[in-house]
Specification:
The chain has about 400 residues and is of the alpha/beta class. The chain has two domains: about 100 residues, Urease, subunit C, domain 1, CATH 2.30.40; about 270 residues, TIM Barrel (Alpha-Beta Barrel), CATH 3.20.20.140. Helices cover about 30% and strands about 20% of the residues. Helix 6 runs parallel beside helix 7 and helix 8 crosses helix 9. The chain is globular and about 65 Å long. This is Amidohydrolase family protein. One of its GO terms (molecular function) is hydrolase activity, acting on carbon-nitrogen (but not peptide) bonds. Pfam families: Amidohydro_1.
């Protein structure tokens, strides 16, 4: 197997809080073979002296939408699937160029996109996909206009790209089983109102206890978990009590609810950059007026929620939830979080913490022997300056995924 030896590294291993100076990392095939504080002898290896630059794990975005070609979900639902797939290719390749070697898709991506990446047809990150999100009638993934009549929604065929409408325990079991059959690595449900959907206020509670528990059971039977869109304390509390493992957004969380998340070991994945981008660019990019109004209710609470989560000791994942052309601001999540969290906390969220969320602890998100060789070289110290991760990867001269270079510039 081919070997690559990175020498003279300042190493962020994905676990610590400081750079480890003078490290050497040997990659063999798709995996990291050795990490050492002494020179490594490997006569067959290609040697790359990175001259003290930072070597760190590839970044992981735990709330990504590969199929999100436009801020208006209703418009996307009637786009030809072939056109959406081309948008997805563009968005995935751009994410990898920013240093994101893995993404968890939160609704819309499917087996075909994952296989296209594996086959090299798309030069994108590893794709952990949810398939279609499960939503109740009138829920956050029901994008039908208010004047649309329910009679036009054939059983289970509501929102055909991003979500599936399923009401009642038998229906949600069938919908979850179908997404798992098609290879979903986790199941996404809508458990509260949201910004992008037309009919549900933010405070709306979605899915009954029986429905959520049934979906959780189905996911557990496949040795995976449920991630839930939820904003309010009541919505989050219900989800955690009913067995949901990953809470998305959580902008309106309060202290008792955060304490519950911490006690139950639930992950929370804030997505603050999407609210900033929607506020700044959404109207010009076609965000519907009803969504602009709902945005006001959650945007202002974003940083406060991060403070509450940190104080409670909640395990905080890293996600962005950006739509369409706004995905160019993906790395802006680092800078927003820096108002509350330390750079080391933020980078751990985007590496080892997210790897644990993906059930890939020790496999992704770390620079350690036997881990996948998903690595990026940063021209400087991101623990001192998170802006090095901005500008579409301009200061990330090397990106390696599974031992192969996705980007390689002269150092």
């Amino acid at each position: 197997m081919a070997q690559v030896l990175f020498k003279n590294c300042s190493l962020f291993d994905g676990l610590g809080s400081e750079l480890l100076e003078g490290r050497h990392v040997l990659v063999e095939g798709e995996r990291i073979k050795e990490v050492s504080d002494r020179p490594i002898t490997a006569s067959e290896a290609e040697v790359i002296d990175i001259g003290g630059r930072t070597l760190m794990p590839g970044l992981i975005d735990a709330h990504f939408h590969a199929m999100a070609a436009d801020p208006d979900f209703a418009k996307m639902e009637v786009m030809p699937r072939s056109l959406l797939a081309q948008h997805a290719r563009h968005l995935l390749e751009a994410a990898l160029a920013r240093g994101f070697t893995s993404v968890r898709d939160a609704g819309g991506a499917d087996y075909g996109l994952a296989m296209a990446i594996k086959a090299g047809l798309i030069k994108g990150p590893r794709l952990f996909y949810s398939g279609r999100a499960l939503t109740q009638t009138g829920g956050h993934a029901d994008f039908r206009a208010l004047e649309d009549h329910s009679a036009f929604c054939f059983c289970g065929q509501g929102s055909h790209v991003f979500g599936v409408i399923a009401d009642g325990v038998p229906a949600v079991r069938q919908a979850a089983r179908d997404e798992l059959r098609k290879g979903a690595t986790q199941i996404k449900i809508m458990a509260s109102g949201g910004v992008a959907s037309p009919s549900d206020p933010i405070w709306n509670l979605q899915y009954s206890e029986e429905e959520i528990r049934a979906i959780v059971w189905e996911a557990a039977s496949w040795r995976t978990y449920v991630m839930a869109h939820a904003y309010t304390p009541e919505a989050i509390t219900r989800c955690v009590q009913f067995g949901v493992r990953s809470i998305e957004h959580a902008n309106l969380i309060d202290e008792p609810t955060a304490a519950l998340c911490a006690a139950e070991g639930a992950f929370v994945v804030p997505t603050l950059v999407t609210y900033d981008a929607l506020h700044r660019f959404g109207p010009d990019l076609g965000l519907p007026a009803v969504s602009q109004e709902k945005l006001k209710a959650v945007r202002a609470a974003g940083l406060v929620s991060l403070e509450i989560l940190k104080a409670a000791g909640v395990t905080i994942g890293f996600g962005t939830d950006l739509l369409g052309d706004m995905q160019a601001h993906q790395s802006g999540e680092f800078q927003i979080r820096a108002e509350v969290l330390s750079p080391a906390e933020i980078l751990r969220s985007a590496t080892s913490v997210n790897a644990a969320l993906l059930n890939a602890e020790g496999e992704l998100g770390v620079v350690a022997a036997e881990a996948q060789a998903d690595l990026i070289v940063v021209d400087g110290d991101p623990l001192a300056d998170l802006s090095l991760l901005q500008d579409q990867g301009a200061r990330i001269p090397m990106i390696m995924k599974a031992g192969s270079f996705a980007k390689r510039e002269a150092l």
